[in-house]
Amino acid sequence: MAKLKKAFFCQNCGAQQAQWQGQCNSCKSWNSLVEEIIENDAATPKWSRMTNQSVQNPILINEVNTAKDPRIKTNDQELDRVLGGGIVPGAVILLGGEPGIGKSTLLLQLSLNLQIKVLYVSGEESHQQIKLRADRIGLNTDSCYLLSQTDTHKIFDQIPKINPQILIIDSIQTLNTPNVENGAGSVSQIKATAAELIKYAKTTNTPVLLVGHITKDGAIAGPKVLEHMVDTVLQFEGDRNHIYRILRARKNRFGATSEIGIYEMQAQGLRQVTNPSEVLITAKDEVLSGNAIAATIEGIRPMMIEVQALVSSAVYGTPQRSCTGFNAKRLNMLLAVLEKRGGFDLGSKDVFINITGGINIEDPALDLAVIAALLSSYHDMPISQNLCFASEIGLSGEIRPVAKIDLRVQEAEKLGFEKITISKFSKLGVSPKKIKLLSLTKVESLVDFLF
Ligand code: TYD
Ligand code: MG
Questions:
Q1: The CATH fold of domain 71-272
Q2: Does 104 contact ligand 1 (Cβ within 6 A)?
Q3: pTM of the full predicted structure?
Q4: Is the beta carbon of 101 within 6 A of some atom in ligand 1?
Q5: Do 381 and 354 contact (CB within 8 A), yes or no?
Q6: HSE-CB of 63 using CA atoms within 13 angstroms
Q7: The domain defined by 279-450 carries CATH number 3.40.50.300
Q8: Which residues, including other chains, have CB under 8 Å from residue 50's CB and lie 6 or more apart?
Q9: Where are the domains of the chain?
Q10: CA 187, CA 119: separation in Å to the nearest integer?
Q11: Which range, of 91-100, 164-173, 182-191, 400-409, averages the lowest pLDDT?
Q12: Most CB atoms within 10 A, among 28, 105, 152, 201?
C-alpha cells in the first residue's frame, strides 16, 4: 500500500500548500483551503499503453504540416462558428454553464448529429435517461455510444472497444480517478482526471468535450487551472426562464473568442438561431410607447435588440430602479444624465428596463436606445418602428460613436429599418444606400428630434 500524502488545496485557484492557512497565498481568497489526499506514486493508467508515442525531434516551423488535421464539422453552424470552424482533432473543450441551461442537450444533439463514432460518457444520467432525451430531440444515429461511468480508468478500459472519434464527458466534476483518494468534485480529483483526459486527447488525437459545472458567481467549479489546461473554454448562458441561449468562447487556442452562437430551447431540443434580429424584436401591430430598438454587436455579430422601458410615478418613498438584461449601474448613470442635461425630474419615478429575449448585453451602443425608450415612456409617445439607435452616451450627455458602426447600419438596413440614429462623429466606411442616417451630438437634441 502506497504511503498517503496529504496537502491543502485552495478550492478557488487550485494552489497546493503544505499547511492550513486562513487565506490562500496565491489567490488571496479566504477560507478556501481544504485538506486533500494525494498519492504520488500512482500506477500508469491502462489507456496510456494503447498508444506508443514516438520520440519527437525538433522540426522547422515551416515544415509542420497543418493540412493533415482538418477540423471536424459539427453540422451545427453556431457551434462551428464559436469554435472557429469546427472541432480540431486532439482539442480539449470545456463547456461551462448553469444547471439546466442545456449543456447536456447541446452535447447530445452534437453526438446525434455527427456521422462519426462518438462515445458519450455520463456520470450524471443513466442510459435510459439519455435515450429519452435523444427521443425528445428526435435525432437518430447508429454511431453514438453511451457509457454511464465515473471511474476514469474504467472509461479508458472501454475506449479501445469502440475507438471513438470524439469523446464527450458529462461532467468533469462527477469523474474520479483511483489514483487520487478524494471524492469526485474535489480540486485534486478534477485536476487529475482532467490531466488524464488531456493526455488521452493529445496522444490519440481524439477531441474531448468536457462539461463543467459553474459556481454561484459564474466561474467554472473546481480549480482555475482547469481553464488553463484545456484548449477551449465555452460558456453556455442565458436565462433559464427564457428560451434563448448564447454560446460564447471565453478562451480558444484555435480561433477567435469574439464569436457567439445563439440557440433557442424548444421542446425538441436546441434550435440554431441564424438570424437573431428577427426573433428578438417582438412583432406588434400597433406602436407602443416605451419601446426602442438598438443595433448592437455581440462579438462580431450584429443584432437588433428591443429595449423596453417603463417610467411611472413611484408608489413608495424611494423610487425603484430595476433592470433585466441591462446593467443597473449604467441605468442610474443614464438617468442622472437625463436629469442633468435633459432637465427631467426622474427622482420621483419608478424606472424599469427590460431587454427582450432574456439576453444579457454589454454593448455600450445600447445607451441611446435605453434613453429613447425612457423618454418615450415618460412622454407616453411611441417611437416610429422604422427607427433604430446605435450610440453610447457620455457623462456630459454627449452622443458618442461606437465600434463597428458599418456592421450595425448594414444589419439595420437589411432588416428594413428606414432610419438609424448615430453619433455625428461616427466614421462610416461605406455610405448606405437605402437607410437614412440621423446624426446627433447631444442628448438634449434627441428630445426635440423624437417628439
Ligand atoms: P440540460 O441539457 O439537462 O441542462 P444541463 O445539462 O446544462 O444541466 O437541459 C435541461 C433543460 O432543458 C430542462 O429544463 C428541460 C429543457 N429541455 C427542453 O426544453 N427541450 C428539450 O428538448 C430538452 C432535451 C431539454
Ligand atoms: Mg446535464
A1: Rossmann fold (3.40.50)
A2: yes
A3: 0.77
A4: yes
A5: no
A6: 4
A7: no
A8: 159, 160, 204
A9: 1-43, 71-272, 279-450
A10: 25
A11: 182-191
A12: 152
